[in-house]
User: What shape does this take?
Amino acid sequence: MRQLAGFFPATEYPDVLIGLGEPDDAAVFRLDDARALIQTTDFFTPVVDDPWTYGAIAAANAMSDVYAMGGDVVLALNIAGFPEDVPPATVTQIFAGGAYKVREAGAAIAGGHTITSPEPVYGLSVTGIVHPQQVMRKGGAQPGDLLYLTKPLGAGVITTAAKLAGDDAGAPRRWARQLRKKPALDVRHLDAAIDSMLRLNREAALAARAAQVRSATDITGFGLLGHGTEMALASAVEFVIRAAAAPALPGVWDYIAAGYLTRGHVRNPQHFGEHVTFADSVSPAQRILLWEAETSGGLLLAVPAAQAATFRSTCQANQQPCWEIGFVQTGAGVRVVS
Assistant: This one.
């Protein structure tokens, strides 16, 4: 997409506040002095077996980009593709799960498009709205800001464990011997991961607006360190992240030890690793968790220190978890300490 930036120079599109020239979680278009549109899209293949839950998680994940920009969701369109042999009842359940989460966000699904696809894919094109002066973006973090995360890490690891531990016969042959030695999935751990993925980032965004946050992103495929690196580089600062302070879903350390990992723990350091340094005291398991891909993860927010109490109290009032995991200082990239 970045190759297209030259075709749409910012000087010719002054109302495009965020676009291809400065890639972010969503595009932002100014309507007037009080309103700007946020536009984004996201979709993926199933991460859980239950169709309704899959649809709901995919919808929550797609809407998260609007919340990462500080906005409210107002409208969504379905994006879907299914093999011809998928039963209509299954498709209906996927759409129903997505519609439920969109309605929870106070928005509406107004249409969409479905194609025939070799494997199921589902997600949303999402429209949000925000005041032009309240847009949160990846850039804008300042030295002295405190870093907060609003969901625990490990959803990618646990859903991978659910796929591989649940059916050895369906796993690649190279894994078969190792899988017979690995622990079975605890359904309570999967339930906790699903609950986390289903949670909208709506309340986190409201707390961020109350605290006048201007720099944020949501944690998805690039993991905490990948997305944190994007923020740090866009802001021309250094993020210092305390590995021990990063929250983890129940059971995730056992699954990491067992090797239930996504490709994110390899691909993300390949792409962002030159910008990330680790203290020797940060364990290999901690490094994996911080690099691992997430699905429908929380917001990473650079909160001005003077507004941190407001942010925490607003989160508490709305039953929104938050964890302080580090701070911003002069420098470049990300430094992980124990």
Observations:
- The radius of gyration is 20 Å.
- The first helix runs from residue 51 to 68.
- The chain is about 35% helix and 25% strand.
